[in-house]
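Here is the promised in-class demo. Please do not try to memorize the tokens; focus on the logic of going from shape to residues.
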């Protein structure tokens, strides 16, 4: 890991620390449902001692089969909108919340690259979502970085969305 990557990680861990502080102060719990971030959200959350007091766990669901079976994403949602969509992202966040019995679920789905993109869904297209007892919020992003950068930016966006929702 080079210096720039260490700085990126430190910045993400700082954000995770803010999430932890608020979650613990409000006695809330959090679960993750990740695709394009490959577990990076869960990784930075657990880099901080005491994270087990609010972070209950999560899943990296790259395949549609896991999105359906483990998170309850509807097959019809995947068929109509695809794995990288606002609708799937919302169902992933809600699925994580429900499946793991957490107060909040956070999700990320996208095309990290360098391959896998199309004209309608280019590399860098990412959705991050959060769900709680009041519903959900999803944000769409179109990153222009390489695979690593897209994963880092998606993780940052997901943590910021959790903070905004809190």
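The designed amino acids, position by position:
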């Amino acid at each position: 890991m080079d210096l720039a990557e260490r700085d990126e990680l430190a910045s993400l861990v700082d954000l995770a620390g803010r999430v932890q502080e608020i979650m613990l102060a409000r006695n809330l719990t959090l679960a993750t449902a990740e695709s394009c971030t490959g577990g990076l959200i869960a990784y930075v959350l657990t880099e901080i001692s005491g994270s087990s007091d609010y972070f209950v766990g999560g899943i990296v669901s790259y395949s549609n089969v896991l999105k359906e079976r483990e998170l309850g994403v509807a097959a019809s949602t995947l068929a109509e909108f695809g794995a990288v969509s606002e609708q799937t992202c919302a169902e992933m966040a809600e699925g994580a919340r429900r499946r793991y019995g957490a107060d909040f679920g956070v999700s990320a789905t996208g095309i990290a690259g360098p391959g896998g993109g199309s004209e309608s869904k280019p590399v860098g297209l990412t959705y991050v979502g959060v769900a709680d007892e009041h519903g959900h919020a999803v944000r769409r992003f179109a990153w222009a970085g390489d695979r690593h950068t897209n994963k880092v930016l998606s993780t940052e966006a997901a943590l910021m969305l959790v903070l905004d929702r809190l």
